Amino acid sequence: MPATARPAADWRFMLASVWHVIAFGFGSGLARKAPGTWGSMFGWFTFVVIDRALPVFADGRWFALTVLAGFALGVAACGITGRRLGVSDHGAMVWDEILAVWCVLAFLPTRFWWQAAGVAAFRLFDIWKPGPIRALDRRIKGGTLVNGFGVMIDDLLAAAFALLLLAIARRLLSA
């Protein structure tokens, strides 16, 4: 029996479903090089726009609700898209980066350099994947954490590592 060809992760595929649009970060994940970084930059941009237009991130309750809703949306979108692509954590799926960047930026000062450091620290931990992040990533790639949950959770853990690093840096700089 011939193997069925996997669909290409391209604009046509993305536009075929709202789930794919979300998973691909509204197209930011379709960058040929460094889609995770482009998704993170899109996350930074959308954070600034949303925070200025509707300061929901300033209120802890609304922020928590936004993150929970975004996480649930990401689990569904990345799960559906990953199954359709035949790859559980395809590089073009960047909703996890977007939500993780929102989590990092919500706890940092609004000054440009702090936000740039936040995005850079998140990307460092997302790419490097130290300890627990690498273990989670292996479980995702091995198929034990599928259906979008694993795609989302390892990036939130990378965001937590980034926030810890930045909290230490902030403390040292204010001492």
Task: Give a verbal description of the structure.
By secondary structure, the protein is an all-alpha fold. The chain has one domain (11-174). 69% of the residues lie in helices and 0% in strands. It has eight helices and no strands. It has helices at residues 11-15, 18-23, 35-53, 60-85, 95-105, 112-128, 131-141, 149-174. The N and C termini lie far apart (67 Å). The mean pLDDT is 92.
Mean pLDDT equals 92
Q: Structural class, please?
A: mainly alpha
How many distinct beta strands?
0
**N-to-C span:** 67 Å
Question: Whole-number radius of gyration?
Answer: 16 Å
Shape: globular
Q: Please estimate the helix content.
A: 55-70%
Strand composition percent: under 5%
What's the SSE pattern? Answer: HHHHHHHH
Number of domains as seen in the coordinates = 1
Main sheet record: none
Low-pLDDT segments: none
Helical run tally:
8
Please summarize what this structure is:
This protein is mainly α and 175 residues long. The chain has 8 helices and no strands.
